[in-house]
Structures are given as C-alpha cells and as structure tokens.
Automatic annotation (TrEMBL):
InterPro entries xrefs: Alpha/beta_knot_MTases (IPR029028), tRNA_m1G_MeTrfase_C_sf (IPR023148), tRNA_m1G_MeTrfase_TrmD (IPR002649), tRNA_m1G_MTases_N (IPR029026), tRNA_MeTrfase_TRMD/TRM10 (IPR016009)
Residue span, tRNA methyltransferase TRMD/TRM10-type domain: 1-224
Record-given protein name: tRNA (guanine-N(1)-)-methyltransferase
Presence of the UniProt keyword Transferase in the record: yes
Source organism (scientific name): Tenacibaculum geojense
Amino acid sequence: MRIDIITVEPDLLQSPFNHSMMKRAIEKELAEVHFHNLREYGFGNYRQIDDYQFGGGAGMVLMIAPIAKCIEKLQSERTYDEIIYMTPDAPTLNQATANQLSLKENIIILTGHYKGVDQRVRDKFITKEISIGDYVLTGGELAAAVLCDAVIRLIPGVLGDETSALTDSFQDNLLSPPVYTRPSEYEGMKVPDVLLSGNFPKIEEWRNEQAYKRTQEIRPDLLED
Ligand code: ADE
C-alpha cells in the first residue's frame, strides 16, 4: 500500500512512522509512506498557501490552487483509490473504515490546518472525509498518523500473528476482554481461575462473556448496531 500525505507540518508527522508497527511495515515494504510539504506548492517568495476567508471571520483558510497542484501531480503519476481529508466535521473513524482502507493500493491523505481548506477542494478532489473524534486538534497531522496506524497494522503480513488483529477490540463490535500475565497473584489480587485451568473452550467462553459485559457497561452503543 502506498500512502501520500499532504501536510503543512511534515516534521510533526515523521516520528510515528519510525517506530513500532508502522516502521516494521515500511521496512518489510508492505507500506510506503511519502510526505508532501504543501508549502512547496505555494505562491510567490513567501510560498503562500492560505488566505483570509470570504465573508469575514477569524482564521486562515488553505487555498485550493496549491493543494490542486500537489494532488494533480500525484494523480499524473498513479491512480488513487481514495483521497481522504482529515477534518473534525466528518464521520468518525471506526474499525470498519480501517479494515476497508487496509485493502486499498494507493491513497492520498490531506491534512487541514488553521480554519480548514477551501470547500472547493472538498468538492473537487476529496472522496472520503474522516474525523478521529469529537474534538478539535490544531491540525490534521496527528489525526492522519492515527488513521495510518489503524490501517497499516491491518495490512496482511504486518502483524506477526495473523490472527491478532482479528481479536482486537471492535473487530466484532465488542471491546476486548481483560488480559492477565504473571504473577498469578499480586497483593491478594488473583487471576481468574478459568484462565489457569487449561480448559480452552471454557476460556473462550469466559472471554466472550467478559467482552460482552465490558461492552454493555462501557459502550452499549456498539451493541445497538
Ligand atoms: N483536524 C482537527 N481536528 C481533527 C479531528 N478531530 N479529526 C480529524 N482531523 C482533525
């Protein structure tokens, strides 16, 4: 999978891709991530990329022309399955969206900044808009890193144990059950007997019950779907 990220803060984005699972995916050549500094497509000596909004109001808006120049250059090199815009005024990212995106070959992610982008960018180029939650970040960079992490770990071959993504929270609309490791007792707090029993059908049943119970307590909305 190839991901092209268009951003005004490329340095802010680098680190998560140099660690853990994303680094591994890139090293194994299962994912390729390219950063494009929007400023390089800006106008004039100051490489202008934003301007005041028509109608007045606080905050600058990213202009269409620099973004169009960058996207059109990328599109002249290959075909993209999705052009995604990270923005809080969009449907919230969930596991189903991450699963779908992990099957794509080429995607562009555009990150907003300031007041966002000229609406005509969204109308002309964007095929999918994603928020990572009901709060506003300074820019879409961290949101793009979150999206990439959620997607890249699902690309077949990235996780060592192929089944482990399937048992993540949300894969079946349930939260994960509790997990324990050694010691089996800590300051009087014991690991549930069933997990030490070696009875795997019983363990599976217990985990399913716990997952359901946890979901009902913490995220009952997931059970409504
Ligand atoms: N940009 C700013 N806030 C955001 C959010 N919550 N999700 C995605 N992109 C954003």
